[in-house]
Amino acid sequence: MEPVVQFDNVNKSYGKHVAVDNLNLSIEGGKFVTLLGPSGCGKSTSLRMLGGFETPTSGRILLSGKDVTKVPPNKRNVNIVFQDYALFPHMSVAKNIAFGLELKGLDNQAIHRRVSELLELVQLQDYASRLPAELSGGQRQRVALMRALAPDPDVLLLDEPLSALDAKLRQQMQIELKAIQEKTGKTFMFVTHDQEEALTMSDTIVVMNKGRIEQMGDPHTLYGRPGSVFVANFIGETNLLRSTVVGTEGDVAALSWNGITITANPGGLSPRVGEYLYVVLRPEAIHCSAAEPTSGNRIKGKIRQRVFKGNHTSLMVEVGAGTLLNTLVHPSDVAQLNGEDIWVGWNPETATVIPDRHAHN
Amino acid sequence: MRTLLSDAPRASLTAFYWAFILYLLLPLTLMMAMSFKDANFVAFPIGEWTFDWYVKVMQDKQFLEACLYSIMIAAATTLAATTLGVWIAMLIVAEGIRGQVIIFALACLPAVVPGMISAISLRIFISTIDMPTGTAAIILGHTVHAVPFVVVMALTRLRSMPGNLVDAARDLGADSVVAFFRVTLPYLGPALLGGMIFCVLLSIDDFVRTFFLGGYRPTLPMLIFAKVQGGMSPEINAMATLVLVVTAAVGLYAEFLTRRARTR
Amino acid sequence: MVSSNTTAAYGTVRDAPVPKYSTGVAKVVNSALYRHTLGAAVESRIGRILLLAGVPMIWLIMLHVGPIYQMLKISLLSHYPVQPGVESRFTLDNYAIFFRESIYFTPLIKSFIFATAATAATLVVVYPVAYYVAKVVRPEGRSKALLLLLVPFWAGELIRTFSVIMLLANRGAVNVLLREIGFIDRPIPMLYTSFSLGFGLVYLICLYMLLPLYSAIEKIPSPLLDAAADLGAGPFTRFRRIILPLSRDGIVSGCCLVFLTCIGVFATPMLLGGPNTVLFPETISGFFHGASDKWPVGAAFALIMLVTALTAAAIFMRLVGGRKRRTI
Fold first, then answer.
1. In chain C, where are the structural domains located?
2. Rounded mean pLDDT of B117-146?
3. N or C: where does chain B have the smaller number of CB atoms within 10 Å of the terminal CB?
4. C12 to chain A: which residues are within 8 Å by CB?
């Protein structure tokens, strides 16, 4: 199937500053795709280039197979939900939604039908004649979404639209947004710096850093098998164990981490002895117990800090002089760990191994 | 000691404020009161009161013609100054245009040139382009005077406009022209209306430019000026009072409009 | 069950009035006329720039700069308007006249003295009022207090000047009142003197001072004053060390505005002044009304006044303004 959106060697620089560095990206239709990254990683610039508000310094952007690199925003079939919604303050909710339809040349009846249909989709029928100033944050968000969906775009772009909402409303809107995407079957391209948001909604996450794509994949892969230190750090909490290879045997590599010997599955890598590797270990993959575990990696340690977090407790365990592991313990298990001395252990298969790029520099 | 004293400045400031209000309103009040004097000469005390002067003024053809003439000039000035002022403001806030500071300085130039000099330079200017003195010249002069005020008012409002409103309009299929008329102009709306009323007041009030650029038809200030120089009479007071009441009402309304625009 | 649902659904559709959408926009935008003119223009970068900048730039250069430029040009000519048979040549004579004859020199000096004095008086009188409205009045009452000050502003220059006559004339309110209470026997001549002119000027322009001062003082955060008081500063110290320096921007722009307005005031001196208070604008005006061949001299004088007035304002800005954060 032909991709709906295609970035073809796209570069964008402002003077000396490179905002987007040779971006190549294909997005399939009907997917919820998230561009995720810290501020300044080029995700918003990429989105604005797709919307037509920035012109790439070089490269091509294709929309449904057509080259739109130099097409102005009003002539592209993409619509944006802006970060602060950008609702027209002097127009009612219905007129806001109708704006794009009016310019398409639809007649009054057709516009009315489409507006009513969209308002119904987000249950705002009773608010049609209100002004944006008379709506709550969540309602404005929905109106902005419907206004952008109204002209039936090939791709809907969302530029951090949830960042202005409070935490509770944000979670609710994440679910609603995903539901609307599924119901309409549209391609959504969502930009955010919030990894939790990305994990909740996306079919595909594109992690960006310094104008480049770090990794692209579905949320499970990105969380479970991060491809780089950056991705591992950016998505979820993590323990990064920088270790030296001391020996390999098939699928098992013996590593030395700050003098502690552990084993890991190097996956596709074939590390040599003496090489440095990172072992990515999620806190929830570590098992804490009073007794020594029978299999897998196991280290004796001392609890240095307990942080109660409601549905779990976070334990900082010192496993060597100054070497700490961040672990996660369920409430039912905390009671057993009343002493200072405990064992930590994990199944080597739950950890991911990534090469240390800097070791060679 | 300090705490004891701290209320004294407050009280004296309040007193000073009211004294100042009295200073501002007293001459105007006296002027209005005099318009009801039942005598031919302007002098206190007033003694007998009458409405006769108003009856006379309302039948004074010259006065009514001057009113109409002033209103006509003010309307033309407002239309021209608003169009130009908004256009210039749009240029100043536009992205990708250089020299905005210079354009802004140019736009404000007529506001810092003293009125008398502005009037003379305009008088010379219309003569160099072979334009006769009269209605068109007055409108031109008044428009030059009013444009800076519209620019500043429009700029203030434009700067408070979320930048992506126009982006949103463009995103939804509007080109720059449609985006301007459907989004930017309505957004300027009430502030612009306030600015327009201000233009009307500026034009109706203007004396020095009209004095140099006008022909034989007098505007309101010209008429009042000529009458004052010709000799005092409560009739002038009645005229001035009528003008004052109308312009103050219009001004109050403009103030109300800009205030509402600011709170929105 | 099903049927009742549909009726209900139809009911809502029928009950809700169909709003009127702006379908005309599309018709205009899609019309051939629009597409080939404006629509085509905004498609290209050059077209957009021309559309945006064309009219404003022509207006600004023609009518904001043009008159001053023409005035400069004519001030350097020996004759204008050009008469048949008389050749007009380049000369600096028109400027020299000013320095040669004191009847021209004196009115300019007088104009400056009046404008400076009126500016200073206005500042002193208006500052406490601006401070009162900005800081003493509670926020909800502020706009009302300000509005009351604006009322005379709408009366217009001429009517305000005229109303001063009511107050100061020989049989005006002040003289009549003073006589009634037995203070004086015969009226004090106040009208057509420097006093009446000064009084009238201050009355005319005080609001130009009020607004800049008010907005500058209003911006001073009140906690600063509380902090200063907490550190032991009395009302006077708070004023001198905090309020005054922080309202400097307002003082500078208010003073410049008032000074430049005063310099150019034309009608007020003619109505309130006397033979001893002939100011420069009246002198200049003489060259334009009556003997028309004196235009070049009038233009030269107007330029002298413009340059000196703007220089004075600029020097004042430099001296008092200090580190001014200028934003357009």
1. 25-75, 95-321
2. 89
3. N
4. 125
